[in-house]
Amino acid sequence: xxDVKELRSQAKGFSVLYVEDNDALRVNASKVLKQFFEQVxxxxxxxxxxxxxxxxxxxxxxxxxVMPYVSGLEMSRxxxxxxxxxxxxxxxxxxxxxxxxxxxxLGIFRFLKKPVNVLDLKNVLSLAVQELKEQYDAKLFYTHxxxxxxxxxxxxxxxxxxxxxxxxxxxxxxxxxxTMEKFIQNYKDIGSLFLPHSGFLYNKEGSYWFDAIRxxxxxxxxxxxxxxxxxIQHYICKYQRIPDKQNYGILSFDDITELxxxxxxxxxxxxxxENLQDTKALFSxxxxxxxxxxxxxxHNYYKGLSITNNALIADLQENTLxxxxxxxxxxxxxxxxxxxxxxx
Length: 344
Description:
Layout: H1 4-10, E1 15-19, H2 23-33, E2 39-43, H3 46-56, E3 60-64, H4 72-82, E4 87-92, H5 97-106, E5 110-113, H6 118-151, E6 155-160, E7 163-167, H7 169-174, H8 180-186, H9 209-215, E8 220-226, E9 232-241, E10 248-255, H10 262-265, H11 267-291, E11 296-302, E12 305-316, E13 320-325, E14 336-340
Parallel strand pairs: 1-2, 1-3, 3-4, 4-5
Antiparallel strand pairs: 6-7, 6-10, 8-9, 9-10, 11-12, 12-13, 13-14
């Protein structure tokens, strides 16, 4: 057990709420708590305890179970709904399985049997403070790490296996996703988005992208991705393990599209990509014209004669454009025209 001076130093900056309906116990326990907590709030029942928690937001709550108005366990339930990280220590003269099971279900930090030994209480409080400090340090580290990520000009993500854990703003912007949670929900395996290209990293028969990148740690891989605007982009991808964190690693993507190196690897595929992007851009324009019922000029050439009629876009499919002459009320030969487009 740590002495009072050490505990007071350890607990600096943390506050505690003590809830007890017995006047004598409340006075005596408050004196103990004030030996090493700078801020101690004291309530005489669960209802007042919940009000104090909402007002002061203490880090630790020490409470009796059986109290008037609101029981200690019911108060604890409400507190954890407000803040799951609060450490709640329950003290009771009744250690029946009913209380113990309910306390476990609520996620109570510790359950102490009354009468409580002062040394036991100090040890439990010390453990609660230690865990709070670890949570605070982890949160601080996470915030700092996220800040570093967001200052990068490259797309960066932390992964556990293939599962995204942390992604930076550049990557969120590329996929038009507002939050990391939404990204993780939509893109559980980013490697499935890597496009085929000779000499590049992507899933192919007998070769899974993550196996290749994990075995080639710190090696540079070429990756091809398509943006939501249907723009093909070329990245240099690198994977680096995080020391002492099993299965965790950092995946980074540096955009080198402007170097125009794709043709050097696979000229045929690059040409197909260009055709595909042109086709998608044309279809995007046609979709706008269709939504706005824009009038088109349809030119028919017959035996050297040019006949021009007004037409509307009747249907747009993956590789087909269907035009209908304006004012036609039905499809018949000569009135509906289908035009095939380039297909991947």
